[in-house]
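Before relying on records like the one below, remember that each one covers exactly one chain. Contacts with other chains, cofactors or solvent are not represented anywhere in the record.
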Amino acid sequence: MATGGWGPGAGPGGQTGHPGNTTGGQGWGPPPGPPANNPYGLPPQGGPYGPPPPHPYPPQNPYPYVPPAPTPGRAPRRRSRLWFFSLPYLTGGVIRSAHRVATRLFVQAGEDRIQDRTVDRVQVARTVLGAAATVVLFLVYGTDRGGWQDAAAGSAAQALIAPVLLIVGGPLIILAFIYYAPPHLRPHLRSRLRVPLKAVGWYVATVVVLGGTLFGIAQLAKTDLHGWQGFVVGLAGLVALAWGLPFFVLASLYSARSAFNTGHVHPMLPPVVTMVFVWVFALFNLIDSGMPAQGPPAVQLCSLLGGPVSVTAVALWELRRMRTRYGVSVRGTATAPTPLV
């Protein structure tokens, strides 16, 4: 009995009811795929031009990173937008801005500067040991009333006065250095004075602008200002104090440390300038304050000469290292490699 193609076909031996038989009855039809006896062979694979060649780079996951599952607990606290108007954030932004500008103007590595990390570590270690020795001296032998404040004020004053002394006495040291060089190198060294002179000009301009602004604001504050005029004067004074003073302090520190970028003239010039001015400062301290009052005479002498002697020793070692390790000398060529060791 025909089933119309939907009923079970004949089973083995002509029995009905076997759905998988494809030789007798209708059943469910042949299994998927090409017929068993296809006279034309297998159908073409991959189009009329044969199977596609294998891809040289297997496909990868375009999103390899799987974010971690959120951990149960308290959700992270989002920072309020009012934080960007808070005093700590504004103070940090002002200091970063002043530091960036001061670094661009007063810290410029010369083409022939030797970037020796060993020398930098020794200089930092000498500074730390000097500060620690001063603290130990105060703790052991005591200080007068206001001794800590006087020491801090003296260090800050030296840092601010150092650029002024460099501007006044630096040209004499540079001229003596150039005169000591061989005659054929003097024009080359003089041609490199542009960068130090530009740094000196920026520092003088900073002092003049900041001092003139503060003086003008002080004079205007004595007059009777109301309304928008008082607001403008107060805003100008706030900007001058908030940005100008940190910039002036950083410019003074960086100018003293780099000796107004004198490394552009010759790699050996900054250590020479440092040796000369450290003894100048020691002489000024002796004339102004006399011998230190802490401890016996031997300790007082060490306190007075410890800083200049240690700075001179490090500077002489740096000059010797330049000469023996990198082949740089005062009366030789000014060109030197820039290793990072």
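Residues 1-27, 334-341 have pLDDT under 50 and may be disordered.
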